[in-house]
Amino acid sequence: MLYSSLTGELWTPVNLTEHHYWEEKGRLPKGGAVKLFFEPCMDQLLLVSVGGDVAILPECPKCVKILHLTDRAVTDAAYEDHRMTFTYDDGETETFSLATADLIRVSLSFVKEACASGGELIDVRPQHRRLQEGPIPCTAAVDPEELDDYLKDKAPDTRLFFICSFGTVADQATWHAYRLGFRNARSVGGWHKGTHID
User: Fold this and answer.
1) Of residues 156, 162, 52, the one with CA closest to residue 101
2) CA distances from 94 to 5, 74, 89 (A)
3) pLDDT digits over 131-146, tens only?
4) Are residues 113 and 158 in the same domain?
5) How many CA atoms lie within 13 A of 155 on its CB side?
6) Is the pTM of this model over 0.70?
7) Structural domain harbouring 39
């Protein structure tokens, strides 16, 4: 399918059955589309399939996630505030909470392109980890406790991307920045082999 990002950039065709952990387990999404939702909090699309899968389509097409929520056939779906409600063929409904990490992660190759047009990649590893693990090519290195000072003079529409050793601190920094009003904050996760598709 041809996928156009929400920032207006045009991307090459993306196969939704590639680049996600279900392929490694031999379990691919099944069934046709039931419903498509727009997630306003993080500006992305959610596609529900008959087979109980939700494909999360963020602005970075390499970061498509497919979550398998049920083995029952889905006939209808509703979405509100990070919660997905499925309706089954017998009329029964079931509600699921979607994982927050899937809402804020983007690939490193996407960040490289975004930074070329003004985005910022921020290393939020504590200083001792930066010294131990070595530098990351980025815009700035900021200790987590100094993040507020770093962000106070930034424009709210600045595209911010956070990275750390394993992803936890970067995710926390992203949500913190988002709560401060930076709607374009995203997490790259951790700086280690195998985390991203470049």
Assistant:
1) 162
2) 30, 10, 12
3) 988 888 888 999 999 9
4) yes
5) 6
6) no
7) 21-99
